[in-house]
């Protein structure tokens, strides 16, 4: 049994040996995954055969498979893409006096894993006694280099008064467990995706069978003598000794395959693990200096927001020409697909915390414009229709009413472009990709929107963020985001925003407030696993923030009174069956003065994977929820809003927090916002103009601008069918 | 090359040898299919290996297969049912002087097939010269007995100055061609559905592998001496001779398997082919006496409506405890499934032409109530939710927005119950099944309908008959039919009927008239094969009569002026990509005085399979369109309406017809309506009360009631994107 230890500010610590039975092994593999956006190593234990889900994820290394439909339809994707488990260099077997090191046997005296968020390393320490009584001490260290995209490295030290035998592998097509077939959200798993191309003692070259992507995986060991054997699917380095063995292992991956893998490996091996670790820390020091969020008064949240920042960085840092998947490179959930989460959650955070990787992420979208244009034609539309799910660009979504019909993804991409440009002033990006993304998504909306007999413009028959409501007219989120998208290319088109005069609230989509109410007797969430879409779609039941999201992203489009009434109305109908929901609800709750509720939603988002009990993140972390913790803090309690390319703040702390400080990149400067119970202080290393509580202010380098915050009473949460767990601050 | 000869009143004649290349072989197999609702023999030629699609369909003999979804959803059917090709007793091989009789070789001097609609037989005559010059004369006759549900019989006569060798087979699991994979409407085909159970010289017993339905197929031959061999999958009777051979062949099927197959076969063989043929004619004489439709002035329509009546009878006569599939027993289209067509089209016609088989058909629905109740629960509803597609009761539809969401099927079933009871007074049926069907479907609507803030009742998020519009609120057809369903159990619930004040038309569903218009530049019908549902659903484009159907079935709910404006509006937006559409458009066109248009729509429906050019009916006839020809004539030009359990007529002939006469069963009497250009005459063999042009009248046995018809000018057709082909009367 293992558990995540009480929160430490910069450390995530697991104590005890993870065992496979209750999901903690899988969850730990996700939590302790290391990645740099290009290469990802799931937190698998070194020794094989302890269950779990092996994962070496090379961004966009996917295989294709055909999709089967009971009833075909025109434009239904014929095939999909699924991320595959690449050549695994993490596997190291150990035997002491002929007995395999295996946590399920013998006695585990100590087992600890530490993810160091400043060092960017995963360290494991084990004290174990073999069944025949040999005491063993083991320490492993691992990193995936932020600085050298192709490189991962390990250091392995073992000590025992016994004969030691170590087999350190690079293995292709290792056996994987079967997928869970009962859950529609489960991913396909390819058991045998590669065919061998070549092998020697330095590298294995293999190729995916159908998508035809070649991979070169190079490996070497230093610090101990060993013998090497190689076969098409395995390079094995074997060393033996007595007493103590320490060695370092260096991996480098290139896909498509190139000799650069061996070169990168050689350079890394020459420099050594300590050098790589020093570079790693330097990179992270720089990151944290401009991105850290300090939370005084709530150690769990403090740890969780840094954990989230770290994992979002790991997902995006070197994603480079490839996309940022919904699970980063921490698991094969969602088949490794990228969804709208990336632009709406992940890039929102990265724009202010690590803008250098946002341009490449949006350029990846731009690189898929050909697919998006083709798809638009296929849908009878103009411009670009980006996919709901994809790895390399084509639509991979197999259920179109809650996929392809969610055209808002196109406005979300445009929104991310506008935000990135406003925050960085990166005009070159705009020339290369940004303007065309804005133009082509705007062209989509021009062809989707139409004007009715009364001269009112509409968007009919699309699906908004809420996946429990589909194919409706005038989804407000979609309309407002499309309107912004169009405005960015100079087209002013006021689209209909449905409003119920009787209920005095906006309608998520036309007619929504007239639908039958859901009967909330059921606590068997998520509802989609026990209720037919026909039932869900016909009712006023909301999977995730939709209109509430619109009130955050287009805060300017609603009066405070409208926001209050809308929030209350939709709180009573939202079940949060998506991890995308809580962060947004936190933001609006904070804005409307429901400060404890905001704190609770923040905690739900922030602690989902880290302290979720091993349930949800086994197939990869919820990267958008990781970004969501930041969103809840910075946009919720920091009150950051950024529509129209302007920064504004309206900070206010919940009862449980003493202080919140966060850093934002803004046009080359680093702005630090420190919120206390009664004041907020802005400092910067360059000139930044923004609004504080609606009033334009400017802070110059070295200046310190402080404003008082009026104390307010927390407003109790409005009724909800599924209120968040009350978050209590651990002492 | 073969073609259907010019129309004859009671005969469908094909001249020339059908060849496989251009679909005429498949089409002919459907046209010349014989069935009694229980057993169906596709019109395959006797000799094997000439392509085509072998078909021996035993009602509800199906196999199951799993359905695969790219993204699973709760309540998506896990498996479906597909009709299989049963043991084939039609196959007879012939060799003359050692050369196989094969139409693709030698010389075909004469080839003719005749379907006799009064005799209920299919006769084939061939004069053929073998490659080596032997002249051969062949005549085969075939029937599937209306009187003996399990029995089919053949008579085979051949003459040639040569050595003749005949192998007459009963074969299980013969090889079938591959399905067309490019069309979403294509069916699955099981290549090898049976496992053998037992065999002897009298019968083969086999069983479907997964659905586990056993079949006993018995065969015998009389009139010539032969030798029999049998194996698990084949009974072969071989006879040889010189000059002339004539024999009769008798088949009987029971499933689940029972010894009754051999008994039925023995009785049939003892009685002989001529006796069976005499019984057949007697049965049909009786049918035609009460069901015939005479059309003077249009031989093609005259032939076609009788062809339609005959095939609907063949689909329904002995369907008995099983359903009536959309293709009858003429092909494997739609996997052999039953859809709403049965109640809305087929039973509508049969209620007035052959009511004896309507009670059993509705009792079949009743027998599936368990499935329908379970399905309702699964959908979060009460009462019964009957499946969109099924063979034995469970939902088999794999695309729910245009399947399960079309809840109107439940009101259609209730409508058929009400019609049948009104027409027959069959109270025992109501006690056994009818009342419960009405109650349980009404319970469904009670749980679906809801009342909004303004006190208006609605049905949200369902799909009406038009499959190019889905998941809308307040589909008028659904609402009006549900309202009638509820009224039948004493619940008066006025449901919202959306109306556009600006366009002065009813909306097919709420908001429909505000949707973007379709751009009709495309003539690549059906649109669904080249346009995504997302595109179709968002536009004002209608696959098939929907609101127009409501104006027929609930004629009482619209004023004449509303009907006129509605018809014009929807004519401009309806593409008739379903064969269910034209008959209904014919009815409303006739009512509104577009008499030539009505005639054109009638012709489209009536001639679809018979003279459709071998395109559409290869996988089975459109049985609903067969009934549709009757509907277009009797409800269109006869003006029959029957809501509220009352018969009414408003007859009016189109320019091209001189006289229309039809018979209707009504509460034990046979009412004959004879429409001429200037008058209508009602006669009956019993007392019948009805309305003529709105006025209640009564005709007694032997009376002749004649009314003048005011001459009217044909009103030109309103604009349509896809007008029907102008029908010209052949001389």
TrEMBL record, chains A, B:
InterPro entries: 6-hairpin_glycosidase_sf, 6hp_glycosidase-like_sf, Gal_mutarotase_sf_dom, GH65_N, Glyco_hydro_65_C, Glyco_hydro_65_M, Glyco_hydro_65_N, Malt_Pase/Glycosyl_Hdrlase
One Pfam entry name: Glyco_hydro_65C
Span of domain Glycoside hydrolase family 65 central catalytic: 306-488, 496-630
Keyword set, alphabetical order: Glycosidase, Hydrolase
Every Glycoside hydrolase family 65 C-terminal domain range: 640-699
GO MF, any single term: hydrolase activity
Domain Glycoside hydrolase family 65 N-terminal: 27-255
Region Disordered: start-end pairs: 711-731
Highest taxon above the source species: Bacteria
SUPFAM superfamilies for this protein: Galactose mutarotase-like, Six-hairpin glycosidases
Family to which the UniProt record says this protein belongs: Belongs to the glycosyl hydrolase 65 family.
Protein's UniProt name: Family 65 glycosyl hydrolase
UniProt organism field: Paractinoplanes pyxinae
């Amino acid at each position: 049994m293992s558990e995540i230890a009480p929160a430490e500010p910069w450390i995530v610590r697991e104590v005890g040996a993870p065992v496979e039975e209750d999901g903690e092994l899988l969850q730990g593999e996700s939590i302790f995954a290391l990645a740099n956006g290009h290469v990802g190593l799931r937190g698998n234990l070194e020794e094989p055969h302890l269950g779990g889900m092996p994962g070496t994820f090379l961004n966009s290394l996917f295989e294709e498979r055909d999709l089967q439909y009971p009833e075909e339809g025109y434009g239904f994707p014929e095939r999909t893409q699924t991320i595959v488990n690449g050549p695994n260099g993490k596997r190291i077997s150990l035997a002491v006096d002929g007995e395999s090191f295996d946590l399920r046997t013998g006695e585990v005296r100590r087992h600890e894993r530490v993810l160091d968020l400043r060092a960017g390393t995963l360290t494991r320490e084990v004290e174990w006694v073999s069944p025949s009584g040999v005491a063993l001490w083991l320490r492993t260290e691992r990193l995936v280099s932020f600085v050298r995209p192709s490189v991962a490295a390990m250091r392995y030290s073992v000590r025992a008064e016994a004969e030691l035998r170590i087999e350190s592998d690079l293995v292709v097509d290792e056996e994987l467990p079967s997928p869970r077939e009962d859950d529609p959200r489960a991913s396909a798993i390819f058991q045998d995706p590669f065919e061998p191309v070549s092998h020697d003692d330095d590298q294995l070259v293999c190729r995916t069978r159908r998508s035809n992507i070649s991979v070169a995986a190079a490996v070497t060991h230093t610090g101990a003598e060993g013998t090497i054997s190689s076969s098409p699917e395995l390079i094995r380095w074997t060393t033996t000794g007595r007493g103590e063995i320490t060695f370092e292992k260096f991996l480098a991956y290139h896909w498509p395959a190139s000799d650069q893998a061996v070169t990168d490996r050689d350079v890394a091996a020459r420099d050594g693990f300590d050098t790589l670790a020093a570079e790693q820390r330097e990179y992270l020091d720089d990151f944290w200096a401009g991105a850290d969020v300090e939370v005084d008064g709530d150690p769990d949240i403090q740890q969780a927001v840094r954990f989230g920042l770290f994992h979002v960085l790991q997902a995006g840092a070197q994603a480079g020409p490839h996309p940022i998947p919904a699970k980063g490179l921490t698991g094969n959930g969602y088949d490794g697909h990228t969804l709208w989460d990336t632009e709406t959650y992940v890039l929102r955070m990265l724009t202010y915390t690590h803008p250098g990787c946002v341009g490449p992420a949006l350029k990846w979208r731009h690189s898929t414009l050909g697919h998006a244009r083709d798809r638009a034609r296929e849908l009878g539309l103009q411009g670009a229709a980006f996919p709901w799910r994809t790895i390399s660009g084509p639509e991979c979504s197999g259920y179109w009413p809650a996929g392809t019909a969610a055209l808002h993804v196109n406005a979300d991409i445009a929104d991310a472009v506008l935000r990135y440009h406003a925050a960085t002033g990166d005009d070159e990006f705009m020339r290369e990709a940004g303007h065309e993304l804005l133009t082509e998504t705007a062209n989509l909306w021009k062809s989707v929107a139409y004007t009715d007999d009364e001269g009112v413009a509409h968007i009919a028959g699309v699906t908004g963020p809420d996946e429990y409501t589909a194919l409706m007219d005038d989804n407000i989120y979609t309309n407002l985001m499309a309107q912004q998208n169009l405005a960015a290319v100079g087209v002013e088109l006021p689209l209909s925003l449905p409003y119920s005069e009787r209920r005095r609230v906006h309608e998520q989509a036309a007619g929504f407030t007239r639908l039958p109410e859901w009967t909330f007797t059921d606590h068997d969430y998520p509802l989609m696993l026990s209720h037919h879409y026909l039932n869900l779609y016909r009712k006023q039941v909301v999977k995730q923030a939709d209109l509430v999201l619109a009130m955050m992203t287009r805060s300017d489009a609603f009066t405070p009174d409208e926001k209050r009434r809308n929030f209350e109305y939709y709180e009573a109908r939202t079940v949060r069956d998506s991890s995308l929901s809580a962060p947004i609800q936190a933001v609006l709750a904070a804005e409307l003065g429901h400060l404890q509720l905001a704190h609770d939603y923040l905690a739900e988002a922030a602690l989902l994977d880290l302290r979720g009990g091993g349930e949800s993140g086994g197939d990869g972390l919820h990267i958008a929820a990781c970004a969501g913790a930041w969103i809840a803090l910075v946009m919720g309690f920091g009150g950051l809003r950024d529509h129209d390319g302007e920064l504004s703040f309206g900070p206010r702390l919940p009862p449980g927090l003493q202080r919140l400080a966060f850093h934002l990149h803004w046009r080359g400067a680093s702005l630090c916002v420190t919120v206390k119970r009664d004041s907020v202080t802005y400092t910067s290393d360059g000139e930044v103009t923004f609004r504080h509580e609606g009033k334009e202010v400017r802070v110059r380098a070295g200046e310190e601008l402080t404003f008082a915050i009026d104390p307010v009473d927390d407003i109790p949460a409005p009724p909800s069918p599924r209120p968040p767990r009350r978050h209590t601050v651990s002492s």
